[in-house]
Amino acid sequence: MAHAMSDDQVAGELKKMTAFIRQEALEKAKEIQIKANEEFAIEKSKLVRQETSSIDSQYEKKFKQAGMTQQITRSTLANKTRIKVLSARQELLDSLFDQARGKLADHTKDKGKYQNLCKNLILEGLYALNEDKVAIRARKEDYDVVKKAMEGAKEEYKKSMQGREVRLELDEKNPQLEGCSGGVSVVGGGGRIDINNTLDERLKLLETDALPMVRTSLFGKNENRKFKD
Known about the structure:
With about 230 residues, this protein is α+β, with helices and mostly antiparallel strands. The chain has helices spanning about 5-100, 110-130, 145-160, 200-210, 210-220, and strands spanning about 135, 165-170, 185-190, 195-200. A 4-stranded mixed sheet has the order 2-1-3-4.
């Protein structure tokens, strides 16, 4: 037959049960706290990685943009510098040919040399036309010199062409235009073919034909130039 527990025994049992429940609660709370800390640590680590990745991505994007901006700036400056250099070179070349153009008249001062020059210019036209009758146009002030040059050209042409003669006429109705620096025009084909051998025209041809050589002499060979003039 069971004996009824005394009040002290009941109180003791309740105390034990309370302690057990409290201990269980503390352990459970500890487990919850540990789990919460672990989840917090995991979430924190995840957030840190996400933010770090975002920062790295933004930095990389800004770095690329900065690199592109630098390249564009460098290219723009290089092009501007190149244009300035080319412009300065062209100004120098234009200046040289302008100076040469201003000195063309000097070639007419020595009548002997100028007569020989006109003779050679006439001969060049005669060989090119290969006709029996040719007209010569010149400046009015050069008529005397050109007439002598025509005679010399006729004789030299006859010798070089094995006795073939050519008839030369000075076209006094159509003198060279005002401002011409000298030289002659050799006209054939019944007036349809005009070989312009004036000093001004020869200088224009020289500007085109000799420009690559002049450019190289002044500025050196351009290694970046793919095509030659």
